Amino acid sequence: MAELQAQRAALQQEMIDVVWAEKDQAGRRRRKIDALICPLAAHPVPEIERYNAVGYTSSWVYLDCPAGNIPIRDMKASDLELGKPQGGNVLSSWDEKNRELWDEAKTDRRVYLGTQLSVQI
Q1: What is d(CA 27, CA 120) in angstroms, rounded to the nearest whole number?
Q2: Cα atoms found within 13 Å of the Cα of residue 95, Cβ hemisphere only
Q3: How far apart, in whole angstroms, are the C-alpha atoms of residue 44 and residue 38?
């Protein structure tokens, strides 16, 4: 258990060094950014048992970084782009699962109406 805690502490320090802080010319550590804003998931709120974006939040939990989710607005009919096919190529197995949530042959996009679009801070 102590080894796992040490590994996590090393990752936490790396996160601080790479993302949050930098050294000034005098060698003092100063903050690079105040907050990081990112999507809560790669998709709108899906039906039960279809959520596929735990990686978006679990990294912050693992590193003991405080994070909160803030709803921005509800999903509107115009957001659904009904009849418009997805563009681009599948980039990974996760991307493939996420794209299924938007594929009209597999999912009725109208299930997303009224769900909240949110960001994680």
Answers
A1: 32
A2: 7
A3: 14
The pLDDT tens digits of the residues spanning 37-80 come to 888 887 788 888 887 666 677 777 777 888 888 999 999 999 98
For 74-110, b/e burial (b = at least 16 CB within 10 A) is ebeeeebeeeeeeeeeeeeeeeebbbebbeeeebebe
Number of Cβ within a 10 Å radius of residue 44: 20
What sections of the chain are H helices per DSSP?
A: 2-15, 55-62, 93-100
Task: Kindly state the average pLDDT of the residues 97-101.
Answer: 86
